Amino acid sequence: MQLPGGVHEGHLERLPEVQPGDHLRQGPGLREAADVKKLYDQREISRLLGISEGRVRYWDRQGLIPHQEKSRGALWFDFQALVAFRTVRELRRQGISLGQIRKCVEKLRQLMPELKQPLAEVRLSIQRDRIILGKNRVRFTPEGQLCLDFGGPENRPVPLAVENYEELFFLALEDEEEGRLDEAQGKYETILAAVPDHVDAMVNLGNLLYLSGSDKAAATCYLKALSLNPEHVEGNYNLASLLEGRGELASAAVFYQKAIQGDPDFADAHFNLAMVLEGIGDLPGARSHWQRYLELNPASEWTDYIKRRLEEG
What we know:
- It is a single chain.
- The strands form 2 sheets. Strands 6-5-4-7 form a 4-stranded antiparallel beta sheet. Strands 1-3-2 form a 3-stranded antiparallel beta sheet.
- The chain is built from 15 helices and 7 strands.
- With 313 residues, it is an alpha+beta fold.
- The protein has helices at 10-13, 42-49, 53-61, 79-93, 98-111, 118-121, 165-177, 181-194, 199-211, 215-228, 233-245, 249-262, 267-279, 283-296, 303-312; strands at residues 40-41, 69-71, 74-77, 123-127, 130-135, 138-140, 158-159.
- It folds into 2 domains: 4-37 and 164-312, Alpha Horseshoe (Serine Threonine Protein Phosphatase 5, Tetratricopeptide repeat), CATH 1.25.40.10; 40-159, Orthogonal Bundle (Multidrug-efflux Transporter Regulator, Chain: A, Domain 2).
């Protein structure tokens, strides 16, 4: 397989085995195609869920799913908000109006003021065109009325349907957030068996394989993902991280640069690329990426270290 900058898949096979974490530096590591440990802007929400950015902003304005941060015109949401957006999308697909959903959220906040993101922390289902809420094995209506199940099929709520493999992808993300990595890996493998070109699942599977010590299998996932989508930011970044850990600094630099081309504000990629460029003797190149990293992340724990590097250079 031919890769950018003259890097070939065969390079990976000639390298010695290393354990995950045996990097030349202890800076930022892997990034997932949908990372459960970061914030998402409205563009990422739109891409992952297939809803328009305008709708993301509208639901935020309506108070259904408030953003965590706002910067440079972008709204930033956490993983619970991502789950909440999915819930609203599914409810709308099943014919529930935004007005009904808003009233439901308002009631939940009254009944359970401790909830930070009601649409993510309470299970919602549909019964006879009504929203039924569930938490801690208790089911109730948005009005606070308890629901009793007398066993008849007509009284059983219909859960929000898992309509396609995109939904399974989100279930895998939830597994990762809860530390159920084997379950997450199984879901990614199921997705790829049915949808072999699901690049995001391929990249996240690569991450899990890498973290378990299977770096060759991880590299295969990243390479296949990039053969399908050469511009995939996380695929380029994670392959670069793997190559850097194996000592292929020139090749790693190529893929970090590709990641930055796809996402110029990807602070971690600037950090890692600066380290790699410094390692191969390109000090002017390293300085430019140190400086860009500080512009993007001035409050980083690495700020003092980078300033020292800039002063020494």
